[in-house]
Design brief:
Layout (H helix, E strand, L loop, with lengths): L3 H10 L5 E5 L4 E5 L18 H4 L2 H17 L3 E8 L15 E15 L2 E10 L1 H15 L9 H11 L6 E8 L2 H8 L1 H16 L7 E4 L4 E7 L3 H16 L3 E3 L2 E3 L3 E8 L5 H17 L5 E3 L3
Helix pairs in contact: 6-7
Length: 299
């Protein structure tokens, strides 16, 4: 006959999600549950070992930091983290889900001690599928459907974060000159293809760290980190020439496209509307002066 405690232990051992009992020093004291072998690897081999003995120092320190945080605050702490079986000594990476997995951990302080150390219950949940869906949905919400670059919302969110830091950035605002004529003459499919080609040419001239977004129908913004207005102007001029010096085509039609660009420098503490208004004024001057040119405006 099982005692009541043994019965509870047996029930907990049947849980699909693993529950680790860990000390504040990183000792694996016990493991309950984890019966869902499609979502988890068998962690029983970890019992009696320590976090530092089965994973890298950085990862072990991170886990211990979360444990101590929950204990010091005496409340449930929820964290998310990536981990692969190959990163944990003692796990059979071939007997469970492959690759880097995303987990949610709920850390509950417990009332008892283990060898004079405080103890937590770490409930683990594999949220890899949910996380992948969230990433896909976030990317869709931040991406322009036609050109597959960042959209207006993403651009202004990044601009807000950039103005909070004292790091040199320049901002370019590009407008395709007389774009309506392309739509009116050759149709909207030609217009769409033209915008895609403009994007392709710009992408060939900017760096991976640069932020390139479609902020209007035929209007694009580019944030250049570690760049002042002078180097930003040089990039703008290269873009202008790459578009103006090579004709565009749609089916049997060939036609010229030019662009006008405004350039400015982003300053720490500026509001989005302040910096964007300045670069928009620079773009307006480029159009007023005859288009197919770049104009820089300083604060």
């Amino acid at each position: 006959m099982l005692t009541k405690l043994e019965q509870v232990y047996e029930v907990l051992s049947c849980l699909p999600d693993p529950v680790f009992i860990l000390s504040e020093k990183g000792d694996y004291i016990d493991l309950l549950g984890g019966t869902d072998t499609q979502s988890y690897h068998d962690g029983k081999a970890l019992i009696g070992k320590t976090l530092h003995s089965v994973m890298s120092e950085d990862k072990a320190n991170w886990f211990i930091g979360q444990i101590i945080d929950a204990l010091d605050r005496n409340c449930v702490v929820t964290v998310e983290y990536d981990l692969a079986a190959a990163e944990v000594v003692g796990l059979d990476e071939h007997a469970g889900p492959a690759g880097i997995l995303r987990f949610e951990g709920k850390i509950f302080p417990l009332s008892f001690m283990h060898n004079d150390d405080r103890v937590v219950c770490w409930l683990t949940r594999n949220i890899s599928q949910r996380h992948q869906l969230e990433v896909q949905l976030r990317k869709q919400s931040e991406t322009d459907g036609l050109t597959q670059i960042a959209n207006r919302n993403y651009f202004f969110n990044r601009l807000s974060s950039i103005t909070k830091h004292d790091v040199l950035h320049s901002l370019l605002l590009l407008d395709v000159d007389f774009f309506k004529q392309v739509n009116d003459t050759y149709g909207h499919l030609a217009g769409d293809q033209t915008l895609q080609e403009v994007v392709s040419r710009v992408q060939s001239l900017i760096r991976p760290i640069d932020i390139f977004a479609r902020v209007g129908g035929e209007e694009f913004a580019i944030i250049l980190p570690q760049s002042d207005d002078r180097s930003g102007y040089e990039v703008a001029e290269r873009i202008r020439l790459a578009i103006a010096n090579h004709p565009f085509s749609y089916k049997e039609h060939t036609f010229a496209i030019t662009t006008s660009l405004g350039v400015t420098q982003i300053h720490q503490g500026e509001q989005n509307n302040e910096v964007f208004s300045r670069v928009d004024n620079a773009l307006y001057l480029a159009k007023e002066q005859g288009r197919n040119r770049c104009v820089s405006l300083l604060k």
